Amino acid sequence: MAGSPKPDHLSRPLGTITRGTTGVNRLRRSDRWLMHDDLVRTRLREAPDPLVVDLGYGASPWTTFELAARLRTVRPDVRVTGLEIDPQRVVRGRDGVTFARGGFELAGLRPVLVRAFNVLRQYPESAVAEAWATIRSGLAPDGLLVDGTCDELGRRCAWVLLDRTGPLSLTLAWDPFTVERPSDIAERLPKVLIHRNVAGEPIHALLAAADRAWARAAPLAPFGPRVRWRATAEYLRGQGYPLRVYRRRMRDCVLSVPWTSVAPNAWPAP
Asked: Where does this protein have compositionally biased stretches of type Basic and acidic residues (predicted)?
């Protein structure tokens, strides 16, 4: 009805405006992972409504269009909506992608997948649990959330995968030709972990063990960093670290573990 007040989720988006830096192909590593992850693929294919939200896409929507194109290889009828809390960044939709103003409340949508990259990095650590809970409450029943961070060129990426019950896994992915050792990825850990890379915390122990295993695999360096990383990962598994085994050949170095392996000490359950 004309003149009716807007619903709360449209008039008061939850969150604060962030810097909004972005770039073409910046999120390619996480996108590739989403395209091939068994759980994500299953949830997308089985969803009654294959709606995906790109939360906080920034000053330019290029990565939202890229996400849509890549996920359509999994499910051709996927619908993607980019949400930005800054109304000046909301652009006109095209190519089957729409844009709207919204924040952690997801503008009232019920997506099967939410990608929030480089959003919570600009918030204090104390805000993570509430933000996660708010986003998860808006997911479809089998919905997933990817909360991640990457550098400006997308060469170093890290993300947490969550469902409505909480975090499921942590994945680190990096360009094997520009990263000297696994712990170099620490500067791009998600906000929930970036301040926990200190002695006594599980994430610090994992990265330290990865560096030791990387050094142990140094004799394989002449065969290239991917071969060296595969040997590193096998050694870590032999040491009891539950690294995920990828059956397909990966162009990136990828380290993925269950959340229970890296969950911070004395951190509130989200």
From this structure: 1-11
Torsions phi, psi of 168, nearest 5? -110, -40
Bridge pairing between strands 156-163 and 144-150:
antiparallel
CB-based contact 125:151 (threshold 8 Å): no
Can you give the pTM of this predicted structure? 0.91
Rounded CA-CA distance 143/149 in Å is 20
Point out which residues pair with 116 in neighbouring strands.
147
List the CATH number of the domain containing 170.
3.40.50
- Per-residue pLDDT band at 24 (split at 50, 70, 90): confident
Angle between helices 28-36 and 38-46 (to 10 degrees): 70
Inside any domain, residue 130: yes
Chain segment 122-153, per-residue pLDDT in tens:
899 999 999 999 999 999 999 999 999 999 89
